[in-house]
Specification:
heterodimer, A: 8-stranded mixed β-sheet, B: alpha/beta, Rossmann fold, 8-stranded mixed β-sheet, 10 helices, Polyprenyldihydroxybenzoate methyltransferase (chain B), transferase (chain B), UbiG_MeTrfase (chain B), methyltransferase (chain B)
Chain lengths: 529, 325
């Protein structure tokens, strides 16, 4: 009887759930209402990783994950069954730090790796378009004790296979209930003074206007539904600040003529950086189905909206040439420190002083570049040639968005729902994974100390700790990226000199460089469960 | 309130007002005098068991049912705080509770050789253990112990406080069976035959510094513990308090009460703080010895109120575990 009732409540109920699990959903009220300790709205990368983290680390909590769509099965996502279409990597991919990879879970990582869908990189090369500075990080900058996943700095993973693997794992987990495809109609959050009340969510099956609405209650509602979060907007207690970078990212997948040698390339130029990132394992023997044996890379090029529009309008051949133009050229000399007209208009002693300063700056910079290369015993790497574009060219506007509060009565924001940043450092998903880990850790802490998340005392404490530690981390990352955005956006020549010398110093001074690598790869991140 | 003489309440207010004047000499941290303890009702309320006060002479006969280590002035003070016990912003003990509990769990796991790994769908590592929360206040610790499976008895010298705690815990299944005994001191419970030598865990957390007679409190607490037998290792006593050091004066009194106003002024009397050594000497009188102790420290940024257990720093807050020799 109970089993049949539960099927009526939600058409998606799986029959292998124990009947006893449902009996408590009906015990407290007359209405057919389910209760979950944690309900996550949004089953993207962060939401589904969070659901897995909670159910693995805090098995005493029941978790529901809601999404408007159900992702493909792993077999479909890996193109194993689809025999007709040729397949190639998707530009919708993320750079995951070693820390994020370990949060994803060894089983998911090895599953993706087996199918050739993890593109590891062990070197990052950053260089500028109007100066000699090259910044090169590699796995040797990470201490052996800190290594999480072997000799890597990170890996590029496409969205779809990763999310489908995460969902597949949850299907076999009795602590997680997947509610999809579904549309949320209404969310009732309790008021702050209300001690033990719960969040109510009204939802119905997607794609069917006549579907019966259902209700669920939850102690904690997590919004993982992206930058335009429905939960955040409909609640009304969250305030955000946003800022447009005035840049558009153009992204696509390209075929390259030679191996990328596990390197992530990024060249800064006036309008923004262009990145060439490895995607898919170059060992094509791992690929299944019609996935070919070509070598691919992903392009993320941030630039002004006008240039982005122009680039998208170019014929493929010209677009490829524009990309190669930028990526094939190496470091250059710094521009003259003082404008020639200014120099010539001044009396002779000033002219020679200016010349002296200029030479000093140039030679200091060149010296640093040389010493950097000597210390590293590794020269500038030349990026592989792009031969053609595969698939569509996408573009999206870049905005910075930050929620002033990540938490409000029993609702909390994670990932893009709480913050979006410029993709130049590839930190977007890494921050989201950090959110998921931090939230899990704090909830686990209160649950294991017997405070539980059903009372305000326990939940508020966990959420406040989550908010303060994540906001610190996120704001620091945003600040760093804003600094880079400004530093590389400038053409003011003294600033270019300072930047160039600064970059070179980072590159040639080991301790500074190693510290930066730790931050960039998430090793320094305090979040561990 | 009607069980507490009006005179007492007036006296407490008077005491607060006197201190408010002191505070105003700190300049920026002065505040409305009359609403003092409504605005900052905080602190040590898991704790009001054996409460004392500097001006308790002759107050004790007003509550003759209580043992003489409890003063009614402090009872009324903690009773007034009841409404905000369960608010994180008003009660610093909520933020301290997770680390106290993790210390307690770890000690019990060591002694009873039980697994505290969170692996199954019900997390009840304290099942089958009998626990006493001495000075339960709003029931923060009692509820935590009960949720983890313990069979909890809680005593508090204030009837009202225990009543409020009972109402709060009735709302949840896991905590509704807690046996709250209001208007009772630890010593009185120890005099009841059925409770003597019956507890696996006795917690005297943030309480001893409020007791007029810490020795009598410890005697009561230790006599409630199960005695060791061939099959049972004996009960564990947990005591947490604040050390009596210059640093603790700066942190707990000046910092906690005057500067940050996280605690109401007058919550603590520095002279009644105890060092780990002093507590160890106290319990040794009753055949107990220290098993382990940890400092409880705040790390910057302090406004997060994130507490950590520390093996070396016992200068301010600390917690210790004790068992029969």
């Amino acid at each position: 009887m109970i089993a049949s009732l539960s099927r009526k409540v939600n058409g998606n109920v799986q029959t292998n759930f124990a009947v006893s699990k449902y009996s408590r959903f009906f015990s407290s009220s007359n209405k057919l209402e389910k209760h979950f300790d944690v309900t996550i709205v949004g089953g993207g990368a962060v939401g589904s990783a969070l659901a897995n983290l909670i159910s693995e680390n805090i098995p005493s909590l029941s978790v529901a994950l809601m999404d408007a769509r159900t992702p493909k099965s792993p077999n479909d996502a890996f193109n194993i069954d689809s025999s007709s279409k040729t397949c190639f990597p998707s530009p919708r991919a993320y750079a995951l730090s070693p820390k994020s990879l370990s949060l994803l879970g060894d089983d998911i990582v090895s599953k993706l790796d087996e199918k050739g869908r993890l593109a590891y990189y062990d070197t990052m090369q950053v260089w500028e378009s109007d100066g000699p500075a090259v910044l090169q990080f590699n796995h040797q900058d990470i201490d052996d004790t800190d290594k999480l996943n072997g000799d890597i700095l990170g890996a590029v993973v496409e969205d779809e296979p990763m999310v489908s693997c995460l969902w597949d794992k949850m299907k076999n987990n009795s602590h997680v209930e997947l509610i999809s495809p579904t549309i949320i109609e209404k969310i009732n959050a309790p008021s702050a003074s209300d001690d033990e009340s719960k969040v109510e969510v009204m939802y119905k099956k997607a794609g069917n206007d006549n579907a019966e609405p259902s209700n669920l209650t939850t102690n904690l509602l997590v919004a993982a539904d992206g930058a335009n979060s429905f939960v955040r907007k409909s609640d009304g207690t969250f305030h955000t600040v946003s800022y447009s970078y005035g840049r558009t990212a153009v992204t696509c997948t390209v075929e390259i003529d030679s191996s990328i040698h596990k390197t992530a390339f990024q060249r800064f130029q006036k309008n923004g950086p262009i990145a060439l990132l490895p995607v898919w394992n170059e060992d094509s023997s791992k690929r299944q189905g019609n996935c070919g044996d070509k070598t691919y890379a992903n392009i993320v090029w941030s630039t002004t909206p006008e240039e982005a529009k122009y680039l998208k309008s170019l014929p493929e051949k010209d677009f490829v040439m524009a990309m190669n133009d930028l990526l094939q050229s190496g470091p250059t000399n710094t521009p003259p420190l003082f404008p020639t007209e200014l120099k010539n208009s001044l009396p002779r002693p000033f002219q020679s002083a200016m010349n002296g300063i200029e030479m000093l700056s140039q030679s200091a910079n060149t010296g640093l570049t040389m010493s950097g290369m000597t210390e590293r015993r590794q020269g500038f790497r030349v990026a592989p040639m792009i031969t053609n574009v595969v698939g569509r060219v996408f573009s999206f506007d870049l905005n910075l968005m930050h929620a002033k509060n990540y938490i409000s009565n029993r609702i909390c924001l994670v990932g893009d729902a709480a913050h979006t940043i410029h993709p130049m450092a590839g930190q977007g998903l890494n921050l989201g994974m950090g959110d998921a880990a931090c939230l899990t850790k704090n909830i686990k802490h209160v649950v294991e100390s017997g405070m539980g998340i059903d009372t305000n005392a326990g939940l508020d404490y966990a959420l406040k700790q989550y908010e303060s530690s994540r906001q610190r981390e996120v704001v620091a990352t945003m600040g760093g990226i804003q600094f880079l955005h400004g530093a590389f956006g400038t053409t003011f020549s003294p600033a270019v000199h300072v930047r160039s010398v600064g970059m070179n110093m980072i590159n040639s001074i080991g301790p500074v460089r190693r510290k930066l690598v730790k931050v960039a790869t998430g090793i320094e991140d305090v979040v561990s469960i | 309130m009607n069980s507490i003489p009006r005179k007492m309440i007036q006296r407490t207010e008077h005491c607060f007002r006197k201190r408010a004047l002191v505070t105003s000499s700190f300049g920026s941290c002065s505040f409305p005098r009359n609403s003092l303890y409504q605005q900052h009702p905080t602190c040590a309320f898991s704790s009001s068991s054996s409460v004392s006060s500097r001006s308790s002479n002759g107050d004790d006969n007003t509550r003759s049912t209580l043992n003489n280590s409890v003063s009614s002035e402090e009872v009324s003070k903690f009773s007034a705080m009841a409404s905000t016990w369960w608010k994180v912003d008003h009660n610093p003990l909520i933020s301290m509770n997770p680390i106290r509990m993790s210390f307690i769990l770890q000690q019990i796991a060591n002694q009873h050789k039980i697994n505290i790994e969170h692996t199954s769908s019900a997390y009840k590592p304290l099942s089958n253990l009998k626990a006493l929360d001495a000075g339960c206040g709003g029931g923060l610790l009692s509820e935590s112990l009960a949720r983890l499976g313990a069979n909890v008895t809680a005593v508090d010298p204030s009837e009202e406080v225990a009543k409020a705690a009972r109402i709060h815990s009735m709302k949840q299944n896991d905590t509704k069976d807690i046996d709250y005994k209001g208007g009772m001191s630890v010593e009185e419970l120890a005099n009841m035959e059925e409770y003597r030598h019956s507890f696996d865990i006795v917690c005297v957390l943030e309480v001893i510094e409020h007791a007029t007679d810490p020795k009598s409190l410890m005697q009561g607490a230790t006599s409630l513990l199960k005695q060791p037998t061939d099959t049972h290792p004996g009960g564990l006593l947990f005591v947490s308090t604040i050390n009596r050091t210059a640093k603790s004066y700066a942190v707990a009194i000046v910092g906690g009460e005057y500067l940050t106003q996280k605690l109401p002024i007058g919550t603590h009397d520095w002279r009644q703080f105890l060092s780990p050594k002093e507590v160890n000497q106290l319990v040794q009188n009753f055949g107990m010895e220290e098993v382990d102790k940890k400092g409880m420290i705040l790390k910057p940024p302090f406004w997060d109120l994130k507490w950590y257990l520390d093996s070396n720093d016992f200068d301010v807050n600390w917690i210790g575990s004790y068992m029969h020799k």
